[in-house]
Design a protein that fits this description.
The protein has 391 residues and is α+β, with helices and mostly antiparallel strands. Helices cover 46% and strands 15% of the residues. It contains 15 helices and ten strands. A hairpin with a 2-residue loop joins strand 9 (286-289) and strand 10. The mean pLDDT is 89.
């Protein structure tokens, strides 16, 4: 198996369906609903995405066998992704199977796909277990995110949005692995990411543009991770709509603000510690979190705000690593940041346990997170991460 897991990228075209992405989300969420109601098994929750063959091409793609070979990677339980874009938006899918068998001829499979595939020649079928939105309504952001992928069919060069969209799907990889779906329990309460992707797409797109253009700026906004941008857009959309409604429960928005910070702090802390722990013995780089042994020199599973706060306040190995890796920011990260996390952690825990959060309670935390009348917590985290990367 290659050093880096292989993934796929393709386009979705409006020429086959008014919105192909929505058509697949509808099928996936319908089966999720059937499972929730006890009328379907967990293994029934999937949708087929097809690569429709161009009418101008006869025969197989040159890399047909290489695409099919990814099914063996999936069989080895390696998280495998299908990136989907229409140039303006970008989604990633959790792939459960790759095949060139015509699954339309198999009993029951037509119920797991949109109807518009009828009558088309198909190169490949991809069984998708989940779909996650990375970028919505911003071609510049899509281009920046795709540059993190390497195109194996073009000398492993960074992927160009306009320069290499031929012979799709492309086989790609990331130098830094992204486990888009392993954090589902920690960040999305175990629900499908497809549920978030389908909810309020137009509101999220509009809010993301406003945050980029009028609050964070076009330079800083793309530096946030896709999950951070998604949580922020969701939180701001809900808060702005209901800030004057004294009876509205803003626990969902509070959770989204907390998750935005949680996501950025995970990226800052553990990327810095990986560097600091390089070459150290296991006993010098391992810590226990909730009874589980974690190697800070490797890929660390997503940690909650509470766990991050405890690591910063009480774990000597973490504190030493932060001092080594963040020479400019370690005093803030170890001294000030845990205090700033306290109010956010309390709101996150209350929201997760169904306690009501009012606008007046959330306002102060929101201002501190996004930076109203001052530098926000998210800004500080991103700039600290940039300084670590520049060392």
């Amino acid at each position: 198996m290659p050093d880096h897991p292989r993934h796929l990228l393709t386009l979705w075209s409006p020429s086959y369906s008014g919105d192909a992405l929505d058509a697949h989300l509808d099928v996936l969420l319908r089966w999720a609903g059937e499972h929730a109601a006890g009328r379907a098994e967990r293994d029934d929750v999937y949708v087929w995405w097809a690569k429709i063959r161009s009418q101008n091409r006869d025969g197989r793609l040159p890399h047909h066998a290489d695409v099919l070979a990814l099914d063996a990677q999936i069989g080895a339980r390696v998280e495998t992704h299908l990136y989907l874009t229409d140039y303006r938006s970008l989604y990633v899918a959790d792939v459960g199977e790759v095949t060139d068998d015509d699954v339309r001829e198999m009993q029951g499979e037509l119920e797991h796909m949109p109807g518009y595939y009828a009558g088309h020649a198909i190169d490949f079928w991809f069984r998708l277990f989940d779909l996650r939105r990375l970028v919505t309504g911003d071609t510049v952001e899509v281009s920046a995110e795709l540059k993190k992928l390497r195109n194996t069919g073009y000398h492993d060069r960074p992927l160009s949005l306009y320069g290499c969209m031929v012979d799709l799907p492309l086989i790609v990889y990331r130098e830094q692995r992204a486990a888009w779906f392993s954090d589902k329990d920690a960040l999305n309460e175990g629900r499908l990411w497809a549920e978030s992707a389908a909810a309020h797409r137009s509101d999220a797109e509009r809010m993301a543009r406003d945050l980029r253009d009028n609050l964070f700026g076009r330079e800083l906004w793309p530096l946030f991770g896709p999950a951070t941008r998604s949580f922020l857009a969701s939180a701001e959309a809900v808060f702005r709509l209901h800030r004057d409604d004294s009876g509205f429960d803003l626990s969902g928005a509070a959770l989204s603000y907390a998750k935005a910070v949680e996501t950025e702090l995970n990226e800052l802390l553990f990327s810095a510690l990986r560097t600091a722990m390089r070459g150290k013995q296991p006993q010098e780089r391992e810590v226990r979190v909730d009874g589980r042994l974690i190697d800070l020199g490797g890929q660390v599973p997503h940690q909650t705000l509470g766990a991050l706060k405890r690591l910063l306040e009480h774990e000597q190995i973490v504190q030493s690593g932060v001092k080594q890796a963040m020479r400019h920011d370690h005093s803030w990260v170890l001294g000030v940041l845990p205090r700033e996390l306290a109010a956010l952690t309390e709101l996150r825990n209350r929201g997760a346990h169904a306690d009501v959060t009012r606008a007046a309670e959330l306002e102060g935390v929101r201002r501190a997170v996004v930076g109203i009348a001052g530098e926000g917590l998210l800004n500080k985290l991103v700039r600290a991460r940039l300084r670590v990367a520049a060392r």
